[in-house]
């Protein structure tokens, strides 16, 4: 008996009991749909976290002032990072693409009779947009000359444009920070909320020298942090090493002494999020896969009932020359067809459910744009697993059918 005839016989046998066949595959449908949906949601969460990390900066590293231990108590050390350190890092470390000194401050921003409190007011260098992987929507960024002169210029985010300028063009307009007039020279592209829901567009950027000299009234060249970007993600660890060695040398720190700086690596945070979401996806998929086992048990039970009902038919086929392996193959094909049919319907329902769940989460999350990720490899694996379930749970009924005694089977009523 060739394979085509076996499939035709199996389809004909299943068509005689459409309702029973449909109820039989229901467990497989639910299991495959659940696995597909859970894996899709898990990968969507991973994609959301990756986008959030990438939006914060490209291969981002940050150097901050360190801490020291005195009398068993750990406390912040005196500021030692300087703008010259940032320049030396980008000039001497081949693994670093760009750097920016950073000085944070807080204040109201006033235009006319409107005032607003930005989430962030940062004094930065000319490499800040490269480090943060941020583009300008209009205008231009402040130049090295404006930074050296501590000019009163600024670049603002989309939220400040909406709050202070509404529909008017802010380029060339004046805003006031601590009663000091600043000229708006550029507007940043929108970035939206970060992974903790903070509005990244509610930001005001100024030259770090302007913040130091005009807002703080300081003549020192120390900065609170240096943000920098590695040239490639695979160079992050080497970049940390290069920067550490350079700062040890520049700050004249003897071997074995505590450094007066700390380097934070966004790669470690991204890897932690990836591990967390992968573990969550596998856990959800494992829980959903339990329903596949339930569906497989249902297939085995129905196939056993089918063998009992068709005992006389099996005896007739054996009497006219069918071999045991032909009977075994026939019932296995029926089981696999049921499983694959349930798998196909389950994948379709899983994809539809993933789209629906993504839309619901996006509507509830507000500013967070939850990405839709349909995992085709997961769908293919689910289909293969459904076929394997059909073979595994269909083998015992098929083997039982193939071992029936023809004489006893013909006598069966």
Category by helix and strand content: alpha+beta
Q: What is the total tally of β strands?
A: 14
User: Percentage of helical residues?
Assistant: 55-70%
Overall radius of gyration:
33 Å
Shape: elongated
Count the helices. How many? 13
Précis, in short:
With 413 residues, the protein is an alpha+beta fold. It is built from 13 helices and 14 strands.
Describe the structure.
- The chain is α+β, with helices and mostly antiparallel strands and 413 residues long.
- The chain has helices at residues 3-15, 18-56, 83-92, 128-132, 144-148, 158-165, 208-215, 236-250, 266-309, 311-319, 324-365, 376-402, 406-411; strands at residues 60-65, 67-70, 73-76, 96-105, 109-111, 114-116, 120-124, 136-139, 153-156, 174-177, 180-188, 203-207, 225-230, 261-265.
- A hairpin with a 2-residue loop joins strand 2 and strand 3.
